[in-house]
Amino acid sequence: AQRVTQPEKLLSVFKGAPVELKCNYSYSGSPELFWYVQYSRQRLQLLLRHISRESIKGFTADLNKGETSFHLKKPFAQEEDSAMYYCALNNAGNMLTFGGGTRLMVKP
Amino acid sequence: GEEVAQTPKHLVRGEGQKAKLYCAPIKGHSYVFWYQQVLKNEFKFLISFQNENVFDETGMPKERFSAKCLPNSPCSLEIQATKLEDSAVYFCASSQTNYNEQFFGPGTRLTVL
Questions:
Q1: Which of B3, B1, B27, B7 is closest to B107 using CA atoms?
Q2: CA distance linking residue B55 with residue B100, whole number of Å
Q3: Rounded Cα–Cα distance for residues B93 and A41 (Å)
Q4: Could you tell me how far CA A19 lies from the centroid of its own chain?
Q5: Per-residue pLDDT in tens (0 to 9) along chain A, 108 residues
Q6: Which residue of A has its CA nearest to B31?
Q7: Chain A residue with minimal CA distance to B107?
Q8: Which residues of chain B make contact with A96, given a CB cutoff of 8 A?
């Protein structure tokens, strides 16, 4: 069965510091992975997906099949990055399996 | 519409009462998904639809939960005889295909007293 693990419930950094939100997965097939973000009082929205290999708002994520990881990184955190971040795996073209989420707090 | 809409925003029910939640997917999206989030923990998949047909219902509790997506109507998720553990935020999402990005609604918070 597929599973997504985000080991940190809370990550607190200072503005300008690098950020890495960890995500590990277990899935027997070829995974499709996503990062979703939920800003305060807003709905859940897609931040990026591994197949597009793009950088959104300065964030990148690389799929590492050997380590079964899809960590989200940003070299210089901004206060507006404070939000809940969810890593998710698409199960063979259907439902999303989510991790438990990491709350990122960027302090001034 | 251009956003997934969910109604109501909040719903309070006594144990044993029925609860019905609604979701209007983005126009042109063929897939609708329902997820349950208990106590801000993980999202649990409940059911998905391709148009009005059930696509995957492996996450649906066998008893008390049912869902429909009928043509020209909002999709609905109904819980018969609610229990305390049904208290959660229920999210609806829609996508163009089952591989595309899922767009989420704002959620309906169900509180069972």
A1: B7
A2: 15
A3: 17
A4: 11
A5: 789 999 999 999 999 999 999 999 998 777 889 999 999 989 999 999 887 778 889 999 989 989 999 999 999 999 999 999 999 998 766 789 999 999 999 999
A6: A94
A7: A43
A8: 33, 35, 43, 45, 93, 102
